[in-house]
């Protein structure tokens, strides 16, 4: 079934070095429409760098990235392509001087040049989707971490992206606030949004991931559907890492 | 003569001086502000050419005394045929000087904004200059207000240098009055009080603006302002 779906994102042999240190040593992956991929791995293995390379917040050294078949690394109009790739940051990165509503609206009015009343309508709709319509007049500093991240998701959704990249969206949150963000993400995945998530929330992975990708030292060690990755990982290193994760987060988390 | 008689007799001259001082300061600080924003943005986000232009400009201005800059504009430019009035020479010297300092203050404010703000702006498809204009500067300029207040006060007082080239500001007027009644101490004391009052008034105005511009919900961890 999945094979017949359109490819949204294709990454081929991506390399990136900072100074002498090679962070990405040839990453290849493909994401099809409606799929959710979860990337796990120890810190410093290049997971975030990989995501940032995909929308070129970081310029990769070599390799190819295709968005819906269009090669984007050589594209001169990267700002046009970035509109189609949502990005949700670990530290939210809401615009601190703007209200919640304006945070969601600014991409619509200033980037997409949609007229104000229509932009407000879209923004309120997206805020409703993440359950924060009643907070639209507040400023980021007046929100909890979980609420900030939900606003950040709404800001991304408002741009109507083809794909959303999540860079450890719950790592900066108190345990009590993680659930509200994950629920929004689960709803999104179920509604057919294409997502690539760097996260260690295994409950989330179990619930919606089509594939789990284990990365270490700049390469993909192993990947597969959640059932086989959890029950029967092929590589010892994957087994070891997943064991550590389940020790930390509990084995049979159900979200 | 009592101090009140001094004040009474010199008041008319001093008011003229106050207007010239305010005119010099306001015009210079505003020109300096716009130049400063350009310099700070070039130095922070510009390509190599823009970076070096602003770097060299700022280093030259900061590396030489304001008085020397004023003398060059007023006394040396006539050598190559450019003759400026005292007021114009002062405005030019103060604007250029203030621009360099404001640029460095603002650069500090820009760099204090988390890099995530730029990343988030780019990630929703903004161009770099849009991100600077819509996201970075509105936040950086708020953090810039306290040092801008400082710069304004500095310039208000240092505009007194322009009496040397003959601009009729507060100090020049004071000198003129004192040379007629020989009450140097009391006249200069009066001038000092005028500067103090002006600085206090503007300090309060900018404190008010700073409070108004504060982003709701943000903490400063400073003593709550009354």
From TrEMBL, chain B:
Pfam families per the UniProt record, alphabetical: BPD_transp_1
Domain spans labelled ABC transmembrane type-1: 18-206
UniProt keyword list: Amino-acid transport, Cell membrane, Membrane, Transmembrane, Transmembrane helix, Transport
One GO-annotated biological process of the protein: amino acid transport
Sequence intervals crossing the membrane: 18-42, 49-74, 80-101, 152-172, 184-206
GO cellular component: ATP-binding cassette (ABC) transporter complex
GO molecular function: transmembrane transporter activity
InterPro entries according to UniProt: AA_ABC_transptr_permease_3TM, ArtM/GltK/GlnP/TcyL/YhdX-like, MetI-like, MetI-like_sf
Main location: membrane
The organism's place on the tree of life at top rank: Bacteria
Assigned protein family: Belongs to the binding-protein-dependent transport system permease family.
UniProt name for this protein: Amino acid ABC transporter permease
């Amino acid at each position: 079934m999945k094979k017949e779906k359109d490819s949204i994102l294709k990454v081929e042999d991506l390399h990136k070095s900072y100074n002498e240190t090679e962070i990405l040593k040839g990453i290849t992956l493909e994401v099809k429409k409606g799929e959710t991929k979860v990337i796990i791995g120890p810190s410093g293995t290049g997971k975030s760098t990989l995501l940032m390379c995909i929308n070129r917040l970081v310029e990769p050294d070599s390799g190819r990235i295709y968005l819906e078949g269009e090669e984007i690394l050589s594209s001169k109009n990267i700002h046009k392509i970035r509109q189609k790739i949502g990005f949700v940051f670990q530290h939210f990165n809401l615009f601190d001087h703007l209200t919640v509503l304006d945070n969601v609206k600014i991409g619509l009015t200033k980037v997409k040049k949609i007229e104000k009343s229509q932009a407000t309508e879209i923004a309120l709709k997206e805020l409703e989707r993440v359950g924060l319509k009643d907070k639209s007049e507040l400023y980021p500093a007046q929100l909890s971490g979980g609420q900030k991240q939900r606003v950040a998701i709404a800001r991304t959704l408002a741009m109507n992206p083809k794909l959303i990249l999540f860079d450890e969206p719950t790592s900066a949150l108190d345990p009590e606030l993680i659930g509200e963000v994950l629920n929004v993400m689960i709803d999104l995945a179920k509604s057919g949004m294409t997502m690539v998530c760097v996260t260690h929330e295994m409950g989330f992975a179990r619930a919606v991931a089509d594939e789990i990708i284990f990365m270490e030292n700049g390469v993909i060690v192993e990947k597969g559907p959640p059932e086989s990755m959890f029950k029967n990982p092929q590589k010892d290193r994957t087994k070891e890492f997943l064991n550590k994760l389940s020790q930390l987060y509990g084995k049979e988390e159900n979200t | 003569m009592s101090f009140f008689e001094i004040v009474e007799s010199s008041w008319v001259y001093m008011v003229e001086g106050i207007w010239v001082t305010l005119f010099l300061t306001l015009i210079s600080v505003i020109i300096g502000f716009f130049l400063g924003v350009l310099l700070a943005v070039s130095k922070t986000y510009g390509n190599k050419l823009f970076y070096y232009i602003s770097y060299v400009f700022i280093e030259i201005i900061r590396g030489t005394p304001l008085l020397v800059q004023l003398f060059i504009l007023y006394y040396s430019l006539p050598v190559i045929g450019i003759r400026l009035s005292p007021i114009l020479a002062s405005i030019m010297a103060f604007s250029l000087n203030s621009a360099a300092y404001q640029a460095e203050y603002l650069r500090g404010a820009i760099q204090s904004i988390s890099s995530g703000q730029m990343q988030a702006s780019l990630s929703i498809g903004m161009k770099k200059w849009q991100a600077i204009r819509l996201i970075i500067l509105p936040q950086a300029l708020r953090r810039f207000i306290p040092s801008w207040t400082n710069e304004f006060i500095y310039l208000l007082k240092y505009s007194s240098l322009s009496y040397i080239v003959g601009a009729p500001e507060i100090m020049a007027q004071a000198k003129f009055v004192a040379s007629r009644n020989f009450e140097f101490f009391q006249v200069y004391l009066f001038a000092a009080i005028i500067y103090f009052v002006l600085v206090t008034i503007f300090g309060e105005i900018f404190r008010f603006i700073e409070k108004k511009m504060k982003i709701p919900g943000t903490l400063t961890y400073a003593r709550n302002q009354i």
